[in-house]
Specification:
Blueprint lengths: L2 E2 L2 H10 L1 E5 L4 H13 L2 E5 L17 H19 L1 E5 L18 H17 L9 E5 L6 H12 L1 H4 L4 E5 L8 H14 L4 E6 L2 H8 L26 E6 L11
Helix pairs in contact: 2-8, 4-5
Length: 254
């Protein structure tokens, strides 16, 4: 079961601050774009932002710099719409290392390449008497970059927790596959006992309009079943994050 994210929760997140670690340009949007839109403020950190992956533009035979220009413009449009500022860390996707995206043997290589830039970027959001919510991918699915970002945070969780409220989001569209999601959630619960699931429900038309901002990543029109986690409840389109109960203030909303 899931708790519902309330209006009071949105206010608290906006007041404390929000930082989103997105493995690639589109992951923050695809996974929690509606939630971020409702919060209306925060900072987006794109970790692996060097890419030649643009299935929606495959007929154009683009160079790396052209792909980056397109993907950067898409990400800027998303950030502008939902009220985020942005950082690109310049990490290279697996193709640049001669690896396949689902080759998890490259996790340590990706961590070695990007751990210091990620931690340095997070340090910029520490202080000012607040403890921001740090949204991190749960690494549902088999994309090595998602696993690398998750592992960077897991390995440094004791150092990050005093400065950030850790919040893990279910990676979409990967989380729409039941067995893939189940395996990842089981691993996550072993690493982070006590975290609870919170769902944010939204209309498919609103979710679809955000997804459509990243046309370079879409081979075909997005389907609603691919962009909701594979759970029985809530039944409709929703996004999900896992939090420690104490990181949300007691609710005052009816």
């Amino acid at each position: 079961m899931s708790s519902t994210i309330s209006t009071a929760d949105f206010r608290q997140m906006a007041t404390q601050g929000v930082v989103v670690l997105s493995p690639h340009f589109d992951d923050g949007c695809f996974s929690i774009g509606g939630l971020l839109s409702s919060i209306g403020a925060g900072h987006l950190i794109n970790v692996f932002s060097r890419s030649v992956y643009a299935p929606g533009c495959i007929a154009l035979d683009l160079t790396e710099s052209q792909v980056h220009e397109i993907r950067q413009a898409e990400d800027c449009a998303f950030a502008d719409r939902v009220g985020l500022t942005r950082t690109e860390l310049g990490g290279a996707e697996p193709d640049f290392w001669g690896r396949r995206p689902n080759d998890l043997s490259g996790v340590e290589q990706d961590i070695f390449a990007m751990q210091a830039p990620v931690l340095d970027a997070l340090k910029l959001h520490v202080g000012a008497g607040k403890r921001p919510f740090l949204f991190v991918p749960m690494a549902i699915g088999h994309h090595v970059n998602h696993h690398a970002v998750y592992e960077m945070v897991r390995k440094h969780a004791s150092e990050l927790s005093p400065s950030f409220r850790l919040a893990f989001y279910e990676d979409l569209p990967y989380a729409h596959v039941p067995i893939t999601r189940y395996q990842a959630i089981r691993r996550f619960k072993a690493n982070y006992p006590g975290f609870e699931r919170h769902a944010f429900s939204l209309q498919w038309s609103d979710k679809k309009s955000l997804i459509a901002l990243y046309g370079s990543q879409l081979r075909r029109a997005p389907h609603p079943l691919k962009f909701r986690p594979a759970v029985a409840w809530p039944l409709g389109i929703h996004e999900a994050v896992w939090l420690m109960p104490d990181d949300l203030e007691p609710r005052t909303d009816p």
